[in-house]
Amino acid sequence: MYVSGEESAEQIKSRADRLEIKKDNLLFLAETDIDNIELALDKTNAKFVIIDSIQTIYSDEITSVAGSVSQVREITARIMKMCKQSGITTIIIGHVTKDGNIAGPRVLEHMVDTVLYLEGERYFSYRILRGVKNRFGSTNEIGMFEMQNEGLVEVKNPSELLISERDGNPPGSVIVVSLEGTRPLVLELQALSTPTIFGMPRRNASGVDYNRLTLLMAVLEKRAGMNFGSQDVYINLVGGIKINEPALDLGIVLAAASSFKNVSIKEDIVVIGEVGLTGEVRSVNMIEKRIKEAEKLGYKTCIIPESNKKLLKEKFKLDIIGAKNIIDAMKYLGLK
To answer: Are the C-beta atoms of 209 and 160 separated by less than 8 Å?
Structure first.
């Protein structure tokens, strides 16, 4: 049963027709009163319920308006009681703020068993389903989908899709491998370094952590002798994806150095590694899974931390280059 407190039956019907949804076992209820919802569930004996959305449902027993802290807490408690008594699986849809947090009381997240965020940038067609809380398993898993005319369609190979539009081999572009849970993602990381026209150089990060970018620029300046104090630096993770993982550090450093020196990095090279404050390249987890993903997509060389290379048990067709520090990696790529 799909319970909609947001839209009318006519609106949902037109969308269902467009998506060609024709199921005999799909029931619809346009209702905002929790008492009426409970009565409908008793009559239909539905085993799977979607509440859209929790901020629109109210109880007459609470005097405050729908969406308030007390209403959301009361409605969620009643839904949970109903689910556990009748063995009903329920998905509660909640609004999110501009900061990406669930609107309303945080108590909602504590009461439920699982919290999933469906994320995506406004101007990109891709959506990522990410687990934030899970009482029954890992939260380190993602699902990637593309918005099409027939609705959200699963992206079978996100890595191939995210690098499909890479054209040529311009300076400042490098391929990295991130890990979302147990799923490796091959991504294109772009950097642009230009002389600043302001008194203070700008740093702009899209898809990666801004504070991490400023730290890595300081490491490049101190350990590699590059004068980024007079350069504006822009970093972009292609595809509208946001990744906050240290394994991208080496890619950020080499992409920035490539743009600064105006020297291209070969198209068939992948870089993986965390960078420390002294310029050392530190090991990352699940290195073999990352290398396998790069090998599957046809890359010929992989630059990884030296400590990871020593512990490799499998043999790969692509060349494995171990780097102890950023200078080793830069010399191999002709950036130093």
So the answer is: no
